[in-house]
## 1
Amino acid sequence: MQKKFGGSAIFLDRSDINTDEIIPAKYLTEVTKEALTPYILEDLTLAGFDPQGEELKNATVVVSRENFGCGSSREHAPWVFEVNDVHTVIAESYARIFRQNMFNCGMLAIELPKEAIDQLMALQQSGKVEVAVDLDGQQITAKAGSEKKQFSFEISQFDKALVKAGGWVEFADVRY
Amino acid sequence: MGKTLAEKIFDAHLKDEPFPGTKVLSLDRVLCHEITTPVAIADLVWRNKDRVFDRDKLKVVIDHVTPSKDSKTATQAKILRDWARRHEIPDFFDVGQNGVCHAIFPEKGYIRPGFTVIMGDSHTCTHGAFGAFAAGVGTTDLEVGILKGVCAFREPASIRVNLNGSLSRGVFAKDVILYVISQLGVNGATDRVIEFRGPIVDEMSMEARMTLCNMAIEAGGTSGVCMPDMTTVEYLWPFIQDEFASKEAALKDYSKWISDADASYDKVLDIDVSNLEPQVTFDYKPDCVKPVSEMSGTPVDQIYIGTCTNGRIEDLRQVAEILKGKTVASSVRGIVSPATPKIFKDALAEGIIQIFMDAGFCVTNPTCGACLGMSNGVLAEGEVCASTSNRNFNGRMGKGGMVHLMSPATAAATAITGVITDARTL
Ligand code: SF4
């Protein structure tokens, strides 16, 4: 089943945020996704960011910079997003394994050029940023206060099919 | 137009192309460890699909935290162990026989030129040293791999890194790969296969080639690869002698995977390593690399020798040569973890373990342990570790800890002085 995308955004304005920062290795001993819930982004130190804060609690979209999700292959990183209802990540670029893990879980890893991310980040000045995702039209609409921005994005046919199927297991099961 | 090694492997394993640019490959090896596999197993059970596509192609090890340190890690080990037994997976390595995945699987001869290999572990790229396409994946890819024996990839472009010149004494594969990563950057090879070529690679042992390929992921690479040659055949010979009439015959067969001379590359890097110094990382990204001369004098608290990057016998020999007759500085603690039981036994037989212990090192069983901050040498807040591993992320070896990556030789010299030291100056 296709997941829900978009919603209120949190901005992590740094490149190379790695999966150790998204979910530290000491929690990899959990054997259910749900058990990861409280530890989202626990080791990320970034000016103005509080892993225990309300902003993260309310967010369902993460916006970041280059090479997001680099490092360890742990799917615990997309999972900790999933169990916190963050089904959409928007970044300038991704590490391959993280990006694939997102689509494999039926979630969206949207890539936008730097200028678009700059504009998204700048929107924060007008207030809380709400993102709407139109998967078929491959468009994102971001609103803050009276400001509104639109961006189109590319997604491969395969990744789109995974998102629609609800993930790679579902897709592969029908096909192989 | 010729083809690269990766393109040839993709062609030979192509099972489906559901959409243009997406290649679903059949898999020769699906490797499993206890951190990323249990959730896949639980999901398969939940879906009522608790099956494996081919038990002989699955290779399974408990390695990250072993023997288990607490109830949670014991549960993970138990899930993997019960599953391996339930499916009668012949190649399962448990306490007593287990070692670090990317060291033990090649050592057992499981990886061959032309193979497709996946594992729920980012350093799976190590196995490309054998001329295989080996990629780290997440648990969902692993799950589908276990069940169906397939995995989907985008078409691979390759980056060719020509390593020319000659290495000076005291400079090793680890120094070369740290330097290459500093040149490529942490995402310079994303969605690319890094081909290591040139006279330096030709002369390297399989161990050294594995060190090179191991860190391809630190530049974002899908896999690191070396071309199969006589060194590959010699290493594999004990395992393949029944398959081929002679080593020459094996070489001839494996040579079909070698990239064609007119293959096309996304990028070609020519690096002359003749003047390369030993390299050390600073800061929290593996592309933050400096010559050891600019880092020397930096105090450390712990020396860690081992891991899938540099825990092999050759590495331990290099350390022992420097440590022999010396002791670790009183300000530091030294930990060595031979990467597999065979390496441990060889090190014992060669007197290397004795040298380590006489120098004051703690010798642990083969395990990942401290490399990812889970056991056997986790750092305290504010502590610094000189490590032969592959990741220096903030908190990697323990929250608030700092890691400097370096070669085994540099780590050995650092153990003796207590500050980062160029082994060639001792
Ligand atoms: S030794 Fe370290 S990098 Fe290698 S597989 Fe184990 S945890 Fe990962």
## 2
Amino acid sequence: MGDFILLMISAILVNNILLIRFLGNCPFLGVSRSMDTATGMGLAVIFVLTLAGMITWLVHHALLIPLGLEYLRTIAFILVIATLVQFVEMVIQKTAPPLYEALGIYLPLITTNCAVLGVAIINIEEGYDLMTAIFFSFASACGFALALVLIAGIRERFALVEIPRAFEGTAIGLITAGLIALAFSGFIGLV
Amino acid sequence: MSIKEEFTKGLWKTLPPFRLVLGLCPTLAVTTTGINGMGMGLATTFVLIFSNLFVSLLRKLIPPQVRIASFIVIIASFVVIVELIMQAYFYQLFKVLGIFIPLIVVNCIILGRAEAFASRNGPLASLADGLGIGFGFTISLFVLGCIRELLGSGSLLGVAVMWSGFEPFTFMLKPPGAFVALGILLAFMNLISSYQERKGG
């Protein structure tokens, strides 16, 4: 159990997937303008990433390795993720319409979120077993959501202050992310 | 637009990742030196050129309902090719770029060009578009890599160029430095464009 707690702290704070490993930056700049969209995207990523981490691990160990097709990993994983996202979208739409209202528009975007494919590949390269892989996927997604909500909280305030024209929009968003990343690098050495 | 215009628009008007704010993950992660940035840019360009060409050639055969999935399969095939080539001939660079080579498949620039350009235009124009956007991306990554290398370790392309008492600015090599450097570069480009606009109009 102790190992899992360490893994969790490391994935959320020390090796934050968004700020330190640089995965999932494109959707991040798009949806971190307001708190509502940031929370919606964060929850959708937690949900899909945990599922994708589990399924890609199973595909790799039950399908690719026995058939000797490890070199097709990239293609296999992206297809699994794209199918999974589509499937999750359909299931949520049928079974939980309120949840679909909240997450619906973010789900298709997740296919091209490199955090999902990135974590799936890290799971394999680090040689995690199934439980660890699921846990690591969940923790990484939580780290993504945390960073996203933190930065959205700051960017919401930009509406109230005057920003030099050249820095408006994406430029100031990047610099904010840089400052938050600086704060996160204070956690290096925690585990 | 002529073929030449399709090519040159990627170099300034829609220069990724500044004008077209896509493909940020590799931009931030691998640009610790100029060479790494260029390697990543060239690998992406290779995939972009071939995916644009094949999407354009197959655009009449791909049913619109499953086009995104088909584009992803085309892109993923070329990413696997790049992965194998780099593993065989550029092993050092392959090690450094690591996970970001397979992640070219989810680089939004490539899927974006397939959807917005190659699926609507002929093969020749798509090839020019892919070359232009790819070179633009490579140059941006190279410049950002050089700036971070110069400030972060006082060297350029592996050769020490700063004066002897220069204190390296290691912040630039760390993850926070990547965000700040890209943010400032973007602001600088906005400044140039607004100056051009004022002069033009």
